[in-house]
Every structure is written in C-alpha cells, then in structure tokens.
Write a structure and sequence with these properties.
The chain has nine helices and ten strands. The chain has 273 residues and is an alpha/beta fold. The protein has one domain: Vaccinia Virus protein VP39 (Rossmann fold), CATH 3.40.50.150.
Length: 273
C-alpha cells in the first residue's frame, strides 16, 4: 500500500508542477480525504493538515482538484529560517523541508519495517518526528538552530503533539542516553553537502549491539548539480559500502528542493548486514 501511495504522490506532484502558476517561494499539496489512490487513515491525514495550518512558514492555502484528487495547496516562504540556518558553522545543510505527505510516507515505511523510534536528525520544523508521533512511534527531533527549535516547540504546543524537539548539535549528541531499542535515524542533509560526515559521526556514537538494530534513512539526490561522479544510492554508496550497510528499500518522493525537477528525492533505507 505504501508503495502505491508513493507512486501516486509522485504522479500528483508532476501534474501539480505542470499546472502550478503561483509565485510562492515554496508550495506543496495534501489530499483532503482518503481515496483509492491515497488510502490513508482520515485522522492521520487530518493531522498532516493540522501541522501545516499551525506552521508559520505557510501563509496561504486553497483547494484544487489534481489528477481527480481533491487537494489543499499550501504556499509558503522559508527564507527567514533558511538564512538563519546557514549561520551555524556546524550546520550541514540549510533548512529546506520535505513535503508533509512525503514525511508521512517515509515514517510509515519505518513503522512497517518494525522500527520503534524515529530520530529526525537536522529536523528543521520537525515534520518527520511529528509524523512518527501520530503513527504511534517514539520520536525525537534533533536540531541545532535555535529559531527552528522554537518553531518546533510552537507547533508542539498548538497541535498538542509532542514530538520532543531537542536543541543540540547532532554530531555531539549522546544517543545512548535515549535508551533506544530499535531506532531509525533520518539524516536530513544530502551526502554531498555534509550529510555523510553527519551520518558517520552518528554511527561512531552507537555501540555494536545498537548498530545491529538500527536503520539509516538517507536523503539523497540523483541531480548532477550535487554530484557529477557518484549518484548511486542517491550519493550514499560510499557510506553504505564503508559501513557494510544493506539497502532494504528506496522511496522516491517530492521535497521542496526537487519541486522543479522531473526526478524527485530518493530516501534510502539501509540496515547493517
């Protein structure tokens, strides 16, 4: 089911990209109700809209029918947060969010793989951790930027969904203090933009027992502008090979930064082999 929803979202995004005539800095769509193409629990779908409605990066919304699916189009601007996020010397990638439904899909995959905790590393506005929480998983959002942590705390308060925002440098954070049982680490930065260094640092902080229970969810890109040489596994093949990881699933889904591209963003799920 998740695979079908992923394909349908990718198709929906391409049609939206073709017809969108607005001028907003960012834009995304969320179906208004469950359907054959999007058989999502209505309460969970409503929770996705709740997050966006309570997120100040969005300033406008309107209904539109796309590919026979009634959607809410959300328009926004992340410039303020983007500029602040690049001011941190140890920040590996400026804030640029995935789509809300994409966050829901990739956390749903983690759930179907029987992972119990989601750690959203470089969590931005916390949408991946939020989705994990509404799916019944234990969630932690690790973010170094104070402005983004405050944004997450505000969203927790207004939505009444506590996805545990933590203001910390993900490279130095003590993950063992969380008493993790079977975690999925979602790495927000592209490998070519410091993500590999971040993921490597996290792996060195895990003991051998926890590593065997861990999944790394790696945000990649097939775009030549990020890597002219290695686009295998979205640019993560080096880290995967060095750490003897095994790719178990890949989902290619919309993000803000891939909106104008024909190929969307790959999320690679890798376990220790």
């Amino acid at each position: 089911m998740i695979e079908d929803i992923s394909k349908n979202l990718a198709s929906l995004k391409q049609e939206f990209r073709r017809t969108y005539s607005g001028t907003s800095h960012i834009q995304e769509i969320i179906p208004l109700s469950n359907s054959d193409d999007f058989p999502i629990d209505q309460k969970e779908l409503d929770a996705l809209h709740l997050f966006v409605r309570n997120n100040p990066i969005y300033y406008n919304s309107y209904e539109e029918k796309i590919n026979h699916t009634e959607c809410m189009v959300y328009e926004g601007d992340i410039n303020k947060f983007w500029l602040n996020s690049i001011s941190h010397g140890s920040s590996y990638q400026p804030f640029s969010p995935t789509w809300m439904l994409t966050a829901y899909i990739i956390t749903s995959i983690a759930k179907t793989l029987n992972y119990r905790e989601v750690l959203d590393i470089g969590s931005g506005d916390g949408r991946i951790a939020y989705c994990a929480k509404i799916l019944g998983l234990d969630a932690h959002a690790i973010e170094i930027d104070d402005m983004l942590v405050e944004l997450q705390e505000s969203i927790c308060e207004t939505t009444k969904v506590d996805f545990k925002p933590v203001g910390a440098d993900a490279v130095k954070f003590d993950y063992l203090s969380l008493n993790l049982e079977k975690p999925a680490f979602f790495i927000g930065g592209l490998a070519q933009m410091g993500g590999e260094m971040l993921a490597t640092s996290i792996l060195t902080h895990l003991d051998s027992e926890l590593k065997q229970k861990t999944c790394m969810v790696l945000t990649g890109s097939y775009s030549e502008k990020y890597s002219l040489n290695d686009r295998k596994d979205g640019g993560w093949s080096s880290l995967i090979e060095k750490n003897n990881l095994k790719v178990i699933q890949t989902a290619v889904l919309p993000t803000v930064w891939s909106f104008n591209e024909a190929v969307d963003t790959p999320y690679t799920f890798a376990e220790f082999g």
